[in-house]
Amino acid sequence: MTIPADFLWAASTSAYQFEAASQLDGKGLSIQDVRHRESGLLRDAMDHYHHMEEDIELLHELGLKGYRFSIAWTRIIPDGDGLINPKGIEFYHRMIQKCLSCDIQPIVTLYHDDLPYELERKGGWSNRNTIDAFVRYCSICFQEYGPYVSLWQPICEQNLLTIEQIVKKENSLKQAFQANHHMFIAQAKVFKLFHDMKLPGKIGPALNIVKVYPFSSSPSDSEAADQMNMLRNLMYLDVAVEGKYSAYALSLLKKLDALPEFEETDELVLSSGTCDVISFSCYTSVCVTKYDGNDFEDTTGMKYGFNLPGMFKIVPNPNLGYTQFASEVDPIGTRLILTEVYQRYKRPILSIQRGYGCKEDDVPVIDDQRIDYLRLQIEQLHKTIENGVDLLGYCTWSAFDVISTSSGVDKRYGLIHVQRTNESAQQCIRTKKASFYWYQKIIQTNGVA
């Protein structure tokens, strides 16, 4: 089946991994700035702040129809809940207008794991006051940029933020799912605010969703896969689309002694704020078996799941190969989960953040492995549309090399190389990789090449 003519060929970055200028022009500290303060990696990042116009011109040359980026909350409100920073407001106005002048639709993520540090000191998402601070921040962004942005995503990969809390074991399961509940409330309030303001464009969650396979055909492994799918994937989609937790999700949380505390109006808030579209990334799939052990951590090294004692455990899938950084490569699984999500929720889907991270030599970069990976993904796009899925677009991760929070610049995802090492930002010179020209042709031929 032919890909629609208005298909949104896009690529992504995130503010804290790309922008730099972490304390210039009034920007405040985020949790990422504090975590990586000693290394200086994020302080310099890829210096997008000073290369912004050049970068958007490169994306225009690439032929992108959409550019997904995040706004740094602390560039707009340095402490998260106080005075507005005019220079931050102005920077994103320039950036959005530059995109529009290059016929690129801005796709804006409002929160990409860079909570203002001052809010973190007060409890972060465990503190319900963070909900109101986030809604206020989003309302400012809607007022400033609402007329110009086609797609909005309040929170990036909320389920991975919860998985991180579970695996780190710094808080109890109940505390982790309580903070997650607060993000649900914040997201619902932002959805409602967006619709009440009658802004153009659409809004929806940006999650990380994976196909979950049972390790064997045994009923216990199938049950384990169902439990993982609900607590890792479907619970987040149910709340965003249907405005409520499913009975199955609540029963599993109760079994884990992890039911969040609801305030009196929470159910009404969730039901009154639902989404228009769904966006999700899908780097891999997971395979699970019934688990009677004690550890929460996924020891496969893929970082996209977790174990729950008494329920499920992630195990390697013997039918799949691996990337250099442990993720299992499963383009068919991506098609299967895209189809499953669309059939369940009947919302248009933007497929985001699928990319290939690897170590690379210096320029020129002949990244044939990335091209092969993307080719497999795009082949599945055609089959996904054949399955009847209303697919809005494909958004690869990432447009440029960005700082990996786990591997610095050793792990590169970009279509465009950025010159720097873990030790030095150097001059951050931009150089197009082989994959840049390949993806350029894909866009020009609307997926045919």
Question: How would you describe the overall organization of this protein?
Answer:
This protein is α/β, with parallel strands linked by helices. Helices cover 42% and strands 15% of the residues. It has 16 helices and 16 strands. The protein has helices at residues 15-18, 31-35, 41-44, 48-62, 73-76, 86-101, 117-121, 129-145, 158-168, 173-196, 219-242, 247-255, 266-272, 331-345, 368-386, 434-444; strands at residues 8-12, 66-70, 105-111, 151-155, 202-203, 206-208, 211-214, 278-281, 285-290, 312-315, 321-322, 328-329, 349-354, 391-397, 416-418, 430-432. Strand 11 and strand 12 (328-329) form a beta hairpin. 51% of the residues are buried. The mean pLDDT is 94.
| CATH topology grouping | TIM Barrel
Q: What's the CATH C level? A: Alpha Beta
Count of discrete alpha- or pi-helical segments spanning 4 or more residues: 16
What summary fits the major beta sheet? 9 strands, parallel
Number of domains: 1
State the helical fraction.
40-55%
> What would you call the structural class?
alpha/beta
Using the 3D structure, state the CATH architecture: Alpha-Beta Barrel
Total strands: the figure is 16
Q: Tell the overall outline.
A: globular
Rounded to an integer, what's the Rg over CA atoms?
21 Å
Q: What fraction of the residues are assigned to beta strands by DSSP?
A: 15-25%
CATH homologous superfamily identity: Glycosidases
Whole-number mean pLDDT = 94
- N-to-C span: 14 Å
Contiguous runs where pLDDT drops below 50 for at least 5 residues? none
**Lateral arrangement of strands in the main beta sheet:** 5-4-3-2-1-14-13-8-6
